[in-house]
Amino acid sequence: MNSKNKNNLTRREFVKNSSLALTGSMIASPAFSSVLNNLTKKKKVALVGTGSRGNSFFGKFLKETYGDVIEFVGLCDINSGRVAFSKKYIGVDCPTFTDFDKMLDALEIDLLMVTTVDATHHEFIIKGLNRNIDVVTEKPMTTDEEKCQLIIDAQRKSKGKLIMAFNYRYGKIFTKLKEIIDSKEIGDLISVDLNWYLNTFHGADYFRRWHGLRSQSGTLLLHKSAHHFDLLNWMIGSDPIEVYANGALEKYGKNNAFRGDNCRSCSHTKECDFYYDMTKNEHYMNLYAANEKYDGYIRDNCLWREEIDIFDKMSVLVKYANNVEVTYSLTTYSPFEGFRFAFNGKEGRLETHEGIPWLEENPENQAELHEKEMDNTSHTKKEVKFHEIVTQRNFENYKKIMFPYLRSGHWGGDKLMFDAIFRDKNLKPTLNHAANVRDGSLAVLIGIAARKSIDSGKSVKISELTDLIPKVNKWS
């Protein structure tokens, strides 16, 4: 082949000739795969649900970071004003819809992203799977066992696949803990203690929004704890079999002497420690306040309103098929934000913490912590900061690992998760970071079982909720 002919090869001829010449070992070569990937079309993605999570994390961030491999072909939301604003904010030129079925009928979609109110996730997941479209859904997968079973059934019939956006799994600190557990540094696991603390900024904010209604969020045992339950399932490497829980609503909701319609119009701003001035947030004013007229959704609702019916304190006991036992608690009005993780093994103990002020050399501003978790830009601090990870084998001295601290982008997990989804890039394939319909189901089934246990005062078996059969080893 002369140089002229080689330079004038068409795309089709190049792929054909390359395939014939390189059949065999080169097809599996990363370099060859990269060449083919560069020749493929962008993945056509559509988004349903354009609240702050949808238009920032699944919208603007993806457009700016993965615009070379994805193309937004549609945005959908029941609020016409919100979806119109989100189109401009994300920076895309695609049609918008307020009718999801019309969007499915009108567009060719490779991947559907679901970021709607939790209680409606199942509707869009199932409709996407029924059309053999791949679906990425925000946590929790759904909010009750009937909807969970419907999703499981839809996945079994579909050529599309459901991908759970469990970004915590990819977080660098949690990946490190998983590696230590799998190394058997502390022997086989026997129990885990996890205490998660939401502060009076982040925790309180759930009670201002739709999350405060059980009918929409399923309680924080689903909306928030699904992250934590999935982490536990993934780290333990087994399936939950039985749950017992306690919980109550003792701080927010009707547990206050005064209340208002919302923070902007409230007459109690000077006496309310939880007063939130949304007018200082230009983005929220444009996204929410300007579009209240379309669906009546109030972003700065009163967290003392009497209709709130979720729990603000929760404690859960979980037994696993491999006999590991978990004690878990979630606090929603802590003075600080953070967690304590402790893993007890037959040969020792592993533990770490984050955000405990008296254990931190440089405690962070509590009002800014959640913003840093959600933000995918870097937050460089002048001082070097570390996570302290401590292991101690029986009859030996403890060992301390100073693991580099990263808060932004959910401990760095956002970028790694999306790299796996959109670039097929996985730095640690043996750790099973990718989460599917079974993972999504088991995470919410713990929360559903916990909610049922609180309501009934009895323990609940996971096997009674859907037709999933718990496994001793998740990947057996």
Automatic annotation (TrEMBL):
<dbReference type="InterPro" id="IPR000683">
    <property type="entry name" value="Gfo/Idh/MocA-like_OxRdtase_N"/>
</dbReference>
<dbReference type="InterPro" id="IPR004104">
    <property type="entry name" value="Gfo/Idh/MocA-like_OxRdtase_C"/>
</dbReference>
<dbReference type="Pfam" id="PF01408">
    <property type="entry name" value="GFO_IDH_MocA"/>
</dbReference>
<dbReference type="Pfam" id="PF02894">
    <property type="entry name" value="GFO_IDH_MocA_C"/>
</dbReference>
<dbReference type="InterPro" id="IPR006311">
    <property type="entry name" value="TAT_signal"/>
</dbReference>
<feature type="domain" description="Gfo/Idh/MocA-like oxidoreductase N-terminal">
    <location>
        <begin position="44"/>
        <end position="165"/>
    </location>
</feature>
<protein>
    <submittedName>
        <fullName>Gfo/Idh/MocA family protein</fullName>
    </submittedName>
</protein>
<feature type="domain" description="Gfo/Idh/MocA-like oxidoreductase C-terminal">
    <location>
        <begin position="178"/>
        <end position="462"/>
    </location>
</feature>
<dbReference type="InterPro" id="IPR036291">
    <property type="entry name" value="NAD(P)-bd_dom_sf"/>
</dbReference>
<dbReference type="InterPro" id="IPR051450">
    <property type="entry name" value="Gfo/Idh/MocA_Oxidoreductases"/>
</dbReference>
